[in-house]
Known about the structure:
The structure is a single chain. With about 500 residues, the chain is an alpha+beta fold. Strand 20 (about 480-490) and strand 21 (about 495-500) form a beta hairpin. It has helices at about 15-25, 45-50, 60-65, 75-90, 110-115, 120-130, 145-155, 170, 185-190, 195-200, 205-225, 255-260, 260-275, 305-315, 355-370, 385-390; strands at about 5-10, 30-35, 40-45, 70, 95-100, 105, 140-145, 160, 240-250, 275-285, 290-300, 320, 325, 330-340, 375-380, 390-395, 420-430, 450-455, 460-470, 480-490, 495-500, 505-510. Residues about 320-325 have low confidence and may be disordered. Helix 12 (about 255-260) packs antiparallel against helix 14 and helix 13 crosses helix 14 (about 305-315).
Amino acid sequence: MIRHTRTIVLWCPDWPVLAAGREAGLDPARPIALIEGGAVHSCSAAARRDGVVRGLRLREAQYRSPELLVLPYDPVLDHRAFEPVVRGVEQAVPAVQLVRPGTLAMRARGPVRYYGGEAQAAGALLDTVAALGVPGAKIGIADGPFAAEQAARTALRSPVGVVPEGGSAEFLAPLPVSLVVDQRTRTLLLRLGVRTLGELAALPAADVRRRFGPAGAFAHERAAGREQSEVAARTPPPEFEVEQRFEPPIDRIDQLAFAFRVSAERFIDRIRESRLVCTALRVELEDDRGGHSGRSWLHPRWFTAPEVLDRVRWQLQGAGSAEAGLAAAVTRVRIIPERLDSTGDHEPGLWGGGPDERVHHALTRVQGLLGHEGVATAAVGGGRLLGDRQVLVPWGDRAPAVRPGPWPGTLPARAPASVFDEPVAVLLRDAAGGPVTIDERGAIGSPPVGFALAGQQPAEVRAWAGPWPVVERWWDPERARRVHRFQLVDHDGCAWLLLRDAEGWWAEARYD
């Protein structure tokens, strides 16, 4: 006989939207949608009232909800924002399992004994998360984590849904089969007439395993209320984050950096004591006007205490200068490690790091003197024109992500070796001595015979190819761009990549 573990599940509805909205300073009552891969990952209650649902394409979601606020889904933000909630719940109920950001599971036996009953334990948990600033949380209590989560999600009249002991199978029976199987299996079960968990549980277990394998057998056990999963309580990680409040608030960058120096050293010392190094951290600032600033910082190796202070100072420099002061005085600074690595992964070699180590120290020192954007490295970004693909990334930052998939109109492989910072004006003449033109259909008016940089006499054109049109943002009159690409070989055998726009001919790059 299977003994079921009585389980409590805490569910925070629309947690990803709540976390992203708080980060962006948006009202959660407005229609908000988080987008991942061009589709809706999650949305607010106001957006659902307009017809927006998970999995809907972005354009369709905006058509259904014209006032929809669109934000990118950030799983790192999702976890980071929920960590204080997890720690707060662990103060009230130990041995908590993080199912996903917004959902926690815990064994019911301890809280029920401590608080005097399931209803009292649920009330204490709801009070805890409400004090942590999480509205609308719900509690589910049942035999096993799956049934308890469904009890929380289906609780309508009360924030607490309780399934009696031994009643999980009856409670789960009317729920849709899509809760336990993937889309492909769901489609097959629907064709077989199996639409609910009760109908799935009524099938012979041996036949389900034979047809759908271990995943189907696991789904069958869940549907029948025979879940054998138990709560796997997490071990609370050590607290490395550092927070300092200022009373009275500080309105000068240099004074704040000096006041936070001891906290930055304590932050690094705590991490070193655990034989770890921090390679990514987050700086959060609050001012006396209620403003909030948060930014993640990366490091090419690992942070030291002076470099932590540099990041705090650079983030403050976006709001003012050390001489003139800040627009609003800062009341709180918080440092949160986002990525920690073992010191063994960053130990120098037996004979040192050689040139790479010297380059790192030199660039880091120069960046400390000139500021965050004072030292940059080149990276290749997305875009159709070569100038758009040149991206300068501050030393230590991650290169911008390039949009996956092809860029229609982009230059094929074997790009030019020399790309000009600014396009260079050129002359392109036909046999009659006039400028070479391109009509509205993208066809060249007459073949080019003379080419030269502006201010020089045109020389013979040996070969040419094109034009190829590039049309961008045709729907936006202010940002629309229409150019034609053209390749030619001059009298010296040098190949050029040209652009033709409304103002004339330009050299974008040269094939050296």
